[in-house]
């Protein structure tokens, strides 16, 4: 059986009536400032309406500039796009949350955010240094603040009306449960690494049961080779359905009920990654049976990202 709905247009409802998230998201983790601008505009032109940003990526200004110009050029209203950004580890102290949020809004040239995420559950030493280290190169963590303290400050942002939904990123199921239990405003979204080599099935089931959207990053396995894009099962399905391996991986992610983030850097790749269509049930089954298990990004256990772009 083939799902009839157009995967490209799929929008997933967020809890608490906080609107809908387009399942197909464009990630802005792009090292180069000029490429950030062209890739963001190309993504908008190709049809992407969901943009994932972060204070830590160092390019919110470029994304904001590209979105402002792109919306005007293509006649798209702000309400028709969904924009997320993230609170960095060095801003977990409750009194730092709102200023960090406002600074991101300003850089993005936006009046409100659709979603604000705590980038990782790890609090670093508070301050403007994003990567605080001791003289031996060890990360300086902040033991004086809990994730729940930070979450309560995130809830206030929703109360104040400039942020429609809040969530967590790089969190495990064990980390999510206590926040979910204690939260006054429950997490609407969790953003984690997920792909056929790391399906995060248990987390996905919990999310579905609680009405939380699982937003998958690295759906193409960060493009690493050898890797998912060359996996024999993915390649065979791609050949059979007349799609590229990337399109197969993205369709699989949407059809299993997650939203996703991908980072095409050229217009051709943006069109390719947006142009997905539903896979037949037997192809989904084959992909679900892949046995390889691999986590690519260690950020979930340390709060230190696998890679960080340098904005020129
Ligand atoms: N929360 C977190 O900690 C976290 C961590 C990482 C990422 N993210 C978010 O997730 C977004 C997605 O990043 P990702 O690295 O996970 O994206 P991805 O789409 O899995 O991988 C991007 C890589 O795939 C390649 N690629 C893209 N489209 C392709 C295609 N059609 N065919 C072949 N190769 C293709 C790119 O190649 P080129 O280099 O040639 O362009 C790039 O190397 C980021 O931008 C960011 O917003 C979040």
Helix and strand topology:
Blueprint: E1 11-13, E2 20-22, E3 24-27, H1 33-46, E4 50-52, H2 60-74, E5 82-87, H3 94-108, E6 115-118, H4 147-159, E7 166-169, H5 173-182, E8 189-193, H6 201-210, E9 213-217, H7 232-241, H8 245-255, E10 259-262, H9 267-274, H10 281-288, H11 299-302
Parallel strand pairs: 3-4, 3-10, 4-5, 5-6, 6-7, 7-8, 8-9, 9-10
Antiparallel strand pairs: 1-2
Helix pairs in contact: 1-2, 1-9, 2-3, 3-4, 7-8
NADP nicotinamide-adenine-dinucleotide phosphate is lined by residues 27-29, 52, 169-170, 191, 217-223, 229, 244, 246, 261-265, 269, 272-273, 297, 299, 305.
What report would you give on this structure?
The chain is of the alpha/beta class. The chain is 38% helix and 13% strand. It has helices spanning 33-46, 60-74, 94-108, 147-159, 173-182, 201-210, 232-241, 245-255, 267-274, 281-288, 299-302, and strands at residues 11-13, 20-22, 24-27, 50-52, 82-87, 115-118, 166-169, 189-193, 213-217, 259-262. The chain has an eight-stranded parallel β-barrel, surrounded by four helices. A two-stranded antiparallel sheet has the order 1-2. The longest helix is centred in the N-terminal third of the chain and has 15 residues, at 60-74. The radius of gyration is 19 Å and the shape is globular. It binds NADP nicotinamide-adenine-dinucleotide phosphate (NAP).
